[in-house]
Amino acid sequence: MTNAEWTPLRVGFADWGPYGLLAVGVLTAAGSAHVVGMSRGELYLSAVLVAAALVLEPGRRRILRHRPPRGRAAAFLYFLRWSFGFVLTWLNPFFAFYAVIGYYTATVQLPRRLVVPGLCLTAVTMAGSEIGGMPPHGLTLWTGFVVVLGANIGLVALFTRYADQEQSRALAQAETIAELERTNTALQQALDENAALHAQLLVQAREAGVADERRRLAAEIHDTLAQGLTGIIAQLQVVANAPDLTTARTHLERASALARHSLGEARRSVHNLAPVELEDTGLPEALKSTVAAWGERIGARTDFTVTGTAEHLHEEVSATLLRIAQEALSNAARHARAARVGVTLSFLGDEVILDIRDDGAGFDPAAVPARTRAGGFGLAGMRARAERIAGTLAVESEPGHGTAVSARVPLVRHDR
Questions:
Q1: Who contacts 60 (Cβ-Cβ below 8 Å, separation ≥6)?
Q2: How far apart (Å, rounded) are the C-alpha atoms in residues 29 and 43?
Q3: Which of 136, 160, 294, 362 could cysteine-pair with 141, CB 3.0–4.6 Å?
Q4: Partners of residue 340 on adjacent β-strands
Q5: Cα–Cα distance, 298 to 328 (Å, whole number)
Q6: What would you measure as the largest C-alpha separation in the chain, in angstroms?
């Protein structure tokens, strides 16, 4: 228990304990009055002091209601109660039941500098009771009084020291708890700020992704559809001037093939605007189906592996890695002429790593031309995708020895 938890219990006993202890003292003193040898005057004086003590208790509460709990008024009332207890115990040792309240209220009512004197005065009262009453008669009783008083003071000092240690320990514990609460509050604020920054980053990444998709689609149209339509027009022009039916049929077939190819490219470009593969499945399943479909279409051997414990990633992270994988596979088909491709998705604690390796022709990364305004997505685009979500992209390749693309991004779980 902390010091704050002890205080209400002790204050409650200080308010109501004196009545009970006074009642015990009155009953035991009344029963022993004849044995102790109390005179009629001492009985009357005891009655007056008991009545004064009964008046003192409610009056004390009213006086201290709007005063400091350890101020001068509280100290005066403590010593006034002690004097009542001391005189009553002098008249009859059994009134020590009432005087003992001083032990329990000293630390509550007295200023720190008066706690020890108050406890010592209570010890004097208790020692007098324990030797059979005050004043001691004869050297033996005085010696016994000194010994008993010393024992009482020793016990008071011991328990006071123990109480001080407990209070210091409680205060230190309370300070530690308060510091932990402040640290937890600061940590929670930092987490909230980090979450807000992360949300802002994702919004920016989404906006940048939209702009990049527009540029990519424009480049796709320029590189595929526009060229396909140009080829179709050229073939139809040849048909219009063909000298015979066989030549016309040949060029019509070429024009039809170009049209089918352009239609396929158009569908692919539109399809790539949004990763529909992620609508009903997670990233591992989407990558697995994408890699398998690519292998069947190209006729290459493909391997897909997942390492670590798969997590349900944030949609922006999943879309970014899927797009990078699709572009890397597209590059492998267009330029590398790879016969075997391996794709690995690794979940490593706080990050996700996507590796795409092929055994194709390879190239010199330092000699890759800069991306043009009308150019395709390419390595620069894949790197830009990874960097938008605080990731990195590394490329290792050598002419004749294949290519390895590695995307490393933070592991951000799904936010729903």
A1: 77, 81
A2: 10
A3: 136
A4: 301
A5: 14
A6: 155
Q: Which of 324, 304, 329 is nearest to 380 (CA)?
A: 324
Q: Is 193 exposed, middle or buried (0-12, 13-18, 19+ CB in 10 A)?
A: exposed
**Inter-residue contact 104 to 10 (CB < 8 Å):** yes
Q: How far out from the chain centre does Cα 371 lie?
A: 45
Residues 6+ apart with CB under 8 A from 349: 411
Radius of gyration of the chain (CA): 47
Report DSSP letters for 74-129, one per residue.
HHHHHHHHHHHHHHHHHH-GGGHHHHTHHHHHHHHHS-HHHHHHHHHHHHHHHHHH
Q: What is the pLDDT of residue 10?
A: 43
What is the per-residue pLDDT for 284?
92
> Using CA atoms, how far apart are residues 139 and 131, in angstroms rounded to an integer?
13
* End-to-end CA separation in angstroms for the chain: 41
Q: Using CA atoms in the order 195, 199, 204, 205, what is the torsion angle rounded to 10 degrees?
A: 90
351: helix, strand or coil: strand
Burial class (CB in 10 A: 0-12, 13-18, 19+), 57: middle
Give tens-digit pLDDT for 26-53.
898 888 888 888 888 888 998 999 998 8
Residue-wise pLDDT tens digits, 287-319: 998 899 888 877 889 999 999 988 888 888 888
User: C-alpha dihedral over 254, 255, 258, 264, to 10 degrees?
Assistant: -120
Q: To which H or E segment does residue 154 belong?
A: helix 138-220
Ranges under pLDDT 70 in the chain: 1-15, 162-163, 209, 212-213, 215-228, 231, 264-265, 267-277, 279, 368-377, 415-416
Q: Give the residue from 33, 25, 206, 240 showing the smallest Cα distance to 125.
A: 25
Which residue is it, tokens 């320990």?
169
Which two three-digit tokens encode residue 48? 């007056």
What's residue 21's pLDDT?
Answer: 87
Distance CA 132, CA 121 (A): 17
**pLDDT for position 364:** 82
Round to whole Å and give the CA distance between 328 and 382.
8
